[in-house]
Write a structure and sequence with these properties.
Strand content of chain A: 35-45%
Structural class of chain A: mainly beta
Number of domains of chain A: 2
Helix content of chain A: under 10%
Organism (chain B): Sphingobacterium haloxyli
Helix content of chain B: under 10%
Largest sheet of chain B: 18 strands, antiparallel, barrel
Number of helices of chain B: 3
Number of domains of chain B: 1
Radius of gyration of chain B: 25 Å
InterPro entries (chain A): DUF4876
Order of helices and strands of chain A: HEEEEEEEEEEEEEEEEEEEEEEEEEHE
Oligomer: heterodimer
Structural class of chain B: mainly beta
Protein name (chain A): DUF4876 domain-containing protein
Shape of chain A: globular
Pfam families (chain A): DUF4876
Distance between the termini of chain A: 106 Å
Largest interface: A-B, 66 and 64 residues
Number of helices of chain A: 2
Organism (chain A): Sphingobacterium haloxyli
Shape of chain B: globular
């Protein structure tokens, strides 16, 4: 009897010992196989797309690892460029600047986003093309809202940054999806290639084509809700009064009724021209990716009537329809994200905006503002537009209409 | 069966053990708290982790039931430590001989309130060596609950030489951070440790045991106030961090899962002569994986840790004196691995794919120390006891690329004295009072950050505070008190009240002091 009890005990102890050893081993072995980090290196070559440009020597090369705050800046040499001693990670790579040739000077821009540079001898080729600049550019954007929880004072100021008269009539406005930056990106149809960006809703500046002219350096503003937000019934802490904004996104919400500003024309939502039931047009208080675009003369753009300009997000089973916007239509794009570390979640193709901008918080009453390069002879401001919002924008500024002294168009309600 | 039913079952079982003990005990029985403390200290094998060796210590019958309350406060603290904390606890432990089978068990419950702790929104215990965690900048209030229960079993001796043992331990904790960014945590740990003891000769024994421990901690973060999205940091060790803002899960909730396996082996060699000698060595290795999210799980980091411990314990018992000498060496090496992942969207996708993994940080610790305690016995309890201790510790943590280091060396000196008084001629009422003085001397403390974000709060504030703490010399003065009186001679039952107060004074301009008190009442029976 005693021997039997002992054997049972022995068996139980040995069984526990065996289980102990085998159970713990797998996770430990996996961890043991991981090796110490080593520096990575990159061989980068910039390929000019413009025939007249044969060398990219002298262009500025910027590599940014947003999460770790690493920025590497170099001047490009002719041919292949080698960068070593890089911390392995995900980088945004931008090549930009002006090159001189017999045919004149060319401002070139090319970039690649979310490039994994993990080991030694990684290679990357980037096409650099003549950058699309103007005539319109976002000059100030306020999206974060005001504490507590007030987001109706969002606005988007757009400036004519060209040297000639430009008409706002027919200028489209959209936010790209996902509405707030996320590493969980949608899947778009493979056959689209790199031709489009995608949005859930499109607006357009009304007009007959010559109704809303802007002289060089003049600007207009589109408000989410063009009211005086400092009124007690709204948000007395609001940094701005939007009642003089030229346009607004009126969603026919009786609680926030139509204001005197001209209504933007609604074009597309979920495959229809109707607005749907949303009570306001809110771009993310964390920062959205915004584009303004214009349809070239001779072309038609009808995302409601043309199913080829619609698609679903193929990463889900949701039936929501999104509109395709040809990249070649885009006049200006700005990528706003939560904070610097979200640079790995860009939605805007780097050829349109190679950077990111941010205000680091929500409801902090701070916005972003394009920097000024200089002034024209008439004193109107020339704004910085290198298609890189990291460089082009000041971050966390107190919102202010026409901060750089932009002119007010004759037709503006602000006069 | 729910965890609470389990706990109730174990509590009742342990109380039953205590009752059974008092009924059937034929051997020596612990009469009071003073005697029990000496027994706990003097026992050699009970500290090895090999349950097969428990009977070598010839444990007396004991059952202890106690409830306590403790509080401490002060600005001399590490940044993740609470400025003020309180704890209420209840615990019981006991043993019993069932024929030639020996079993001892314990159960305990504690509730903690920790106020104004910083830079932690994902771990109930931020000091358990895990570098991958969420940190916010709000000084927060944590409410934590801890349960632990376990038993140790020594099987009957076979052929007067071989003995098997088994120890099992279960721990469960929950924690809740009471301010945005909020955290709701659940933790469990299960450890099983079978062992064997072999008597080579009448005075010589060798033992070996293995252990397996599995633990999991699940932290769910969310913000109640979604009007202002809080900023927070993902920490990766030595101040390296990624700043994040409320979206990307926090407003909806973010889960961080910590899962660990740990195995170990221990060897013991014992000699019983005029001096009882026990030399033991333990090796443990464990890996803990950190994942973010339940859906589209993203690997965040892995900590692989090796620990070696060597202990030499010498005991000598004379008619009126006991001598206790302990020497211990400890070496630990941990390697923190980080992952670079890519999210692959799509209905058939597994979500995040790991593209690169590497060891980015290492954590080396070592310490050696020794102590000597002299106990003057008065019957079965002490008349007085005096103890001196000395220890040296060294830590060197490195973040490999970009290079950062955190290192310190320290010396610890300590001495204590306790005197027991009999308040009645029959020693049915005992009172003990003592004093302990410990001094920690910093030999070297240095932090160098080589990353790209030297102005980020985890570097400029959290690690700066941490460095100041470890660069501080400090003096700790403690006063232990015990009052015990016999309730029933027939049932060998005593009640006791224990108290311990301490005052800690830092020799540093950045800190002042810390003080605390612990009080418990209970019974031995």
């Amino acid at each position: 009897m005693k021997l039997e009890k002992y054997n049972v005990g022995s068996f139980f102890v040995v069984f526990c010992a065996c289980c102990s050893i085998f159970q713990g081993c797998q996770k430990i072995n996996d961890a043991r196989e991981i090796e110490n980090i080593q520096y990575a290196s990159l061989r980068l070559e910039a390929i000019p797309v413009i025939e007249e440009v044969t060398s990219t020597e002298g262009l500025r090369l910027v590599l940014q690892n947003f999460p770790e705050g690493i920025r590497i800046e170099r001047t490009m040499e002719a041919g292949a460029n080698y960068i070593d001693n890089m911390v392995p990670g995900v980088y945004s790579v931008t090549v930009s600047g002006t090159v001189e040739s017999d045919q004149g000077n060319f401002f070139l821009n090319g970039s690649a986003n979310n490039v994994m540079i993990l080991r030694e001898h990684e290679t990357l080729e980037i096409e650099v093309d003549g950058a699309t600049v103007g005539p319109f550019a976002f000059s100030e954007i306020f999206y974060s809202g005001t504490d507590p929880f007030y987001f109706r004072n969002q606005f988007y100021e757009i400036t004519n940054n060209s040297d000639g008269t430009a008409y706002a009539d027919g200028l489209y406005f959209a936010r790209l999806v996902p509405i707030a930056a996320s590493t969980s990106m949608p899947i778009w149809p493979e056959e689209d290639g790199n031709r489009y960006v995608y949005t859930d809703r499109i607006w357009r500046v009304p007009g007959n084509g010559a109704q809303y002219p802007l002289q060089p350096g003049e600007s207009f503003t589109i408000a989410q809700f063009a009211a005086n937000h400092r009124l007690p019934q709204y948000s007395p802490n609001s940094p701005i009064d939007c009642s003089k904004c030229e346009f607004e996104f009126n969603m026919n919400n009786p609680n926030f009724p139509d204001q005197p500003a001209t209504d933007m024309q609604h074009i597309f939502f979920n495959g229809n021209a109707a607005m749907g039931s949303s009570p306001q047009y809110l771009t993310s208080v964390f920062g959205s990716a915004l584009v303004i675009f214009r349809v070239p003369e001779g072309e038609t753009y009808d995302p409601v009537g043309n199913p080829d300009l619609q698609t679903r997000d193929l990463s889900t089973t949701a039936p929501n329809l999104y509109a395709k916007i040809p990249r070649s239509y885009v006049v200006d794009a700005v990528e706003a994200v939560q904070n610097e570390t979200m640079g790995t979640a860009k939605r805007v193709p780097t050829v349109l905006d190679a950077g990111i901008t941010y205000v680091d918080a929500t409801y902090n009453s701070l916005g972003i503002r394009r920097k000024k390069l200089g002034n024209r002879n008439d004193g109107s401001p020339i704004l910085m537009d290198t298609n890189n919002s990291t460089d082009d924008f000041e971050r966390k500024v107190v919102p202010h209409f026409r901060y750089h002294g932009q002119g007010v168009p004759d037709w503006s309600s602000a006069n | 069966m729910s965890i609470y039913q389990n706990i109730t079952f174990y509590l009742l079982a342990l109380l039953s053990l205590g009752y059974a003990n008092s009924v059937v005990a034929q051997q020596e029985t612990v009469d009071n708290m003073l005697q029990w403390e000496v027994g706990q200290q003097y026992g050699n094998w009970r500290h090895t982790g090999n349950a097969a060796g428990l009977l070598v210590d010839r444990p007396a019958h004991f059952s202890v039931l106690q409830a306590g309350y403790s509080s401490q406060a002060g600005d001399f603290r590490r940044p993740q430590e609470a400025r003020k904390s309180t704890q209420a606890d209840v615990g019981t432990l006991g043993n019993i001989y069932l024929g030639d089978l020996y079993i001892q068990g314990h159960f305990g419950y504690a509730r903690q309130d920790r106020r104004d702790a910083e830079y932690n929104a994902s771990l109930i215990d931020p000091f358990r060596g895990m570098p991958y965690m969420i940190a916010d900048t709000n000084a927060s209030h944590w409410a934590n609950e801890h349960y632990h229960l376990g038993f140790e079993l020594a099987f009957p001796l076979k052929d007067d030489r071989l003995q098997l043992g088994l120890a099992m331990e279960y721990r469960s904790s929950s924690g809740a951070k009471q301010r945005d960014v909020r955290a709701l945590n659940r933790f469990y740990a299960l450890e099983v440790s079978p062992g064997v003891l072999y008597r080579i000769a009448p005075k010589y024994r060798i033992g070996v045991h293995v252990s397996y421990r599995n633990h999991k901690e699940e932290a769910t973060n969310r913000s109640v106030n979604n009007e202002i999205d809080q900023g927070y940091f993902s920490l990766y060790g030595l101040g390296h961090s990624i700043a994040r803002l409320g979206y990307e899960n926090l407003t909806t909730t973010r889960q961080t899962n910590y899962e660990a396996d740990r195995i170990g082996v221990g060897l013991q060699y014992g000699f019983e002569g005029p001096w009882s000698v026990l030399l033991s060595g333990n090796y443990e290795v464990g890996a803990e994986n950190v994942h973010v999210g339940f859906m589209d799980t993203r690997p965040e980091g892995t900590l692989l840790q090796d620990d070696w411990t060597v202990t030499l314990a010498l005991r000598r018992s004379q008619e009126h004196w006991k001598h206790i000498i302990d020497a211990k060496g400890y070496w630990s090496n941990a390697r923190g691995s980080e992952y670079i992942n890519e999210f692959v969207p799509g209905l058939d996708s597994d979500g995040y794919m790991n593209r690169y993994s590497s060891v980015r940080s290492t954590y080396d610790k070592s310490s050696i120390g020794a102590s000597y305690e002299l106990i003057k016995m008065n019957g079965s309890q002490y008349s007085y006891r005096a103890k001196g201790r000395l220890a040296y510790g060294k830590t060197k943590d490195r973040y490999l690329i970009p290079s950062s280091t955190f290192a310190f060396e320290e010396m610890l000196y300590g001495a204590s004295f306790e005197k027991a008084f009999s308040l009645s001629s029959a020693t049915t009422s005992l009172f003990s009072i003592g004093v302990s003085v410990d001094y920690r001397q910093c030999l070297n403390a240095n932090y160098d950050y080589g990353g790209a974000l030297p102005n980020s709060l985890p570097v400029a504030d959290m690690m700066a505070q941490e460095t100041h703490y470890f660069a501080s010399d400090f003096l700790t003065i403690g006063v232990p008190l015990v009052y015990s009186f016999e309730l029933s001679t027939a049932r060998e039952t005593s009640l006791f009240i224990k108290a311990h107060g301490f005052y800690q004074r830092a020799d540093q301009t950045f800190f002042d002091h810390r003080k605390g008190v612990q009080v418990s009442v209970g019974a031995t029976f």
